[in-house]
Structures are given as C-alpha cells and as structure tokens.
C-alpha cells in the first residue's frame, strides 16, 4: 500500500497498486528543508529558520514543481510559496488558525456548507504541495477525512437539502485520491438527481502534471455532471509545456478550466506579473476566475498586501486586459452568504 500524508503531516493511505507515475511523484516529494536548499544551491544560513517553521507546518515540494525554480535565486516566486521562513513563527494580531471560521459550517466530518446552492466536500486531506499561505494549514484533517463507508451520511445530507445543486471537491487536494476512489465518489454523487455540477479545486495537475491520467480524463469527461476544474496558479512561471499539455486533455474531454489565485506580497503583486499570468492562463485554455486577497491565517502574515494596493492593482489590470481575462478581486468573509468583491473601480463605492 502506498502511504501519503495529510497536509498537517498525518499519514493517509492511498489505494492504487501498483503505483502510477503521479503517485510515485507524490511519494518522493521533498520534505526536508536541507534537501530543498541544497538542490537549489541556496544559502545554508536559511536552514535553521526553515527547519523550525517546518515543524509547525511540514515542507512538501514535488520535484516537477522544483524543476521550474531558478537555482541560486532565494527570491524565486515559486520557491517563496513553499519555503518555510522564520516569519511564520511570529504571532500577528488578526491572523488566526481558522480565518474563515469553517468550524462553524462543518455539519458532518468532511462536509462544509456555507453557501445556499453548494456544499464543499473534503475529499482527501493530502496535498502534493504545502503552500505556506494556505488558509487550511491548521485545518483538522484528521477529523474531516471520511472513508467510503462514511460517505453515506454526506449523501443523505445533500439529498435532504434539495437547494444544493453543486458539490465542490476540495481538501487537501481531491486529486490525491486514486482514480478508482475518485470514480466511486463521483458515481455516488451522480446518483443524486438534484446535482448538476461538480467542481474540483486542485493544485495537483499544476505541481504534478502526470496526475492527469487517461483514467482521470475518462472519469471526468464521461460524467453526467458538468465538471469544472479550478486550478490554483499564482504565477506564470508555474505554467510550463507539460502543464499545458496535460490540462488540454481535460479541456478536450469537456472539462471547464478556471483558475483562482491569491495575491501574495513579493510574488505576484506587480502589474506585469498579473498581466503575464492572465495571458499564460488563457494560452493554456484556462479562464481567470478569482483573485483573492490573503486569508488572515496564522503563519502567513508576511504575504499580505493592503486592500488599497490590491484594488489599485486590479484597476490597472482592467485597463490592461480585456474583461474576460480579469479575475474577480475578492475575499471570503466568515458568515457572509457569498464571496465579497473588493471595489477596484472609481465608480464603485467602498
């Protein structure tokens, strides 16, 4: 049996045997800061703080993702998303372990219900990559990782809420499931006639492109549900030829491709970077969807930029790009029945 680990380091079994390429790449992710620094030829002086921060939130970097980083560059925008820093150890007022208060919308293990017409299912607690800004870096995955035997209460809950017509598979990363387990889950959801859409939020096809297997393409392409894959790409450097090739297989199978990004200080908070990201996404047949300001999660305050900076950047994007390439600037506010759009146009009141 292949064993992966949850985003918080807890072990999680996966069930495909023998392992496929993507599962092997999941198994061999870089977990030690010393190895990451050595492979990228970076200053060993970064190691003590990186090791300390990684004890709070483990390091996970897939090797295909590492290949897109520039050796010797401590400011590489992909490296900055994954490198543990001493700044994560600082306690900053207003930054909490559950910034979206998801514990208040967690009626069943693995199920989050915040919005009227859709529910979110924690389909797997494992991640291929641990992004240091992740709003679920403190999430209790060990209490929200239902087995197949525990799916039925979730299905019953959805059936008891006929206003729900969409299920969002999230995590962790839902594509950390084997193809067979994912197929079984989707089949169970398809049996609920009220459902019309299935949305999958995943970083795996970006950080480990081999995850887009022929079996996955078939599962998603043949579903009776309208399937949407929301990738999480923050910087144009994350999109290489293999990512484009693999995602195009899903697009050709009828899967709708969207992207959501997070505004991150020193990584993608420049106009030129955001323009390049939008163009690279569209070249890969992915439409920009949301551009989120940072969720105030403990350990990630050093990534935050002000709302005024975000709004000014978004206004500049509207002036540079056609409207269909401008992602909606938004944040999630606990307790609100929808995402909150930030004003970025002079004719919008705050």
Arrangement of strands in the largest sheet: 3-4-5-6-7-8-9-10-11
Helix content: 25-40%
Order of helices and strands: EEHHHHHEEHEHEHHEHEHEHEE
Describe the largest sheet. Answer: 9 strands, mixed
Rg, Å, rounded: 19 Å
- Overall mean pLDDT: 92
Q: What is the end-to-end distance? A: 54 Å
Family: Belongs to the radical SAM superfamily. KamA family.
Keywords: 4Fe-4S, Iron, Iron-sulfur, Isomerase, Metal-binding, Pyridoxal phosphate, S-adenosyl-L-methionine
Domain Radical SAM core: 112-336
Protein name: L-lysine 2,3-aminomutase
Describe this structure in words.
The protein has 350 residues and is an alpha/beta fold. The chain is 30% helix and 17% strand. It contains twelve helices and eleven strands. It has helices spanning 21-27, 33-39, 47-56, 63-66, 79-82, 151-159, 179-190, 204-207, 214-221, 241-252, 271-283, 307-320, and strands at residues 2-5, 11-14, 111-115, 118-124, 166-171, 197-202, 226-232, 256-262, 287-292, 328-331, 340-341. Strands 3-4-5-6-7-8-9-10-11 form a nine-stranded mixed beta sheet. Strands 1-2 form a two-stranded antiparallel ribbon. A hairpin with a 2-residue loop joins strand 3 and strand 4 (118-124). The protein is globular and about 55 Å long. The termini are far apart. The model is unreliable at 1-5, 9-17 and 346-350 (pLDDT under 50).
């Amino acid at each position: 049996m292949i064993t992966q680990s949850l985003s918080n380091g807890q072990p999680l079994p996966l069930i495909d045997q023998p392992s496929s390429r993507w599962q092997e790449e999941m198994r061999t992710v870089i977990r030690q800061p010393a190895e990451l620094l050595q492979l990228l030829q970076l200053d060993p002086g970064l190691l003590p703080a990186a090791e300390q921060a990684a004890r709070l939130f483990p390091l996970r970097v897939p090797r295909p993702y590492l290949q897109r980083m520039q050796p010797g560059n401590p400011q590489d925008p992909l490296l900055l998303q994954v490198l543990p820093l001493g700044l994560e150890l600082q306690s900053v007022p207003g930054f909490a372990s559950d910034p979206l208060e998801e514990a208040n919308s967690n009626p069943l293990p693995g199920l989050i219900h915040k919005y009227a017409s859709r529910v979110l299912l924690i389909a797997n607690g494992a991640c291929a990559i641990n992004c240091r800004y992740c709003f679920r870096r403190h999430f209790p995955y060990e209490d929200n990782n239902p087995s197949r035997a525990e799916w039925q209460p979730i299905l019953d809950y959805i059936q008891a809420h006929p206003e729900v017509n969409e299920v969002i598979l999230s995590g962790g990363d839902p594509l950390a499931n084997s193809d067979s387990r994912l197929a079984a889950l989707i089949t169970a959801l398809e049996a609920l006639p009220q459902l019309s859409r299935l949305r999958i939020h995943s970083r795996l096809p970006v950080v480990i492109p081999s995850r887009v297997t022929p079996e996955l393409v078939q599962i998603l392409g043949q579903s009776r549900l309208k399937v949407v894959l929301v990738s999480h790409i923050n910087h144009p450097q994350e999109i290489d030829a293999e990512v484009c090739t693999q995602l195009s297989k899903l697009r050709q199978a009828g899967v709708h491709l969207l992207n959501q990004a997070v505004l991150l200080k020193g990584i993608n908070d420049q106009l030129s970077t955001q323009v390049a990201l939008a163009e690279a996404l569209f070249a890969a047949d992915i439409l920009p969807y949301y551009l989120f300001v940072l969720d105030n999660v403990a350990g990630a305050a050093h990534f935050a930029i002000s709302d005024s900076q975000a709004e000014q950047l978004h206004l500049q994007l509207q002036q540079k790009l056609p409207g269909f390439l401008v992602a909606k600037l938004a944040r999630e506010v606990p307790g609100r029945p929808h995402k909150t759009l930030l004003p970025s146009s002079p004719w919008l009141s705050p």
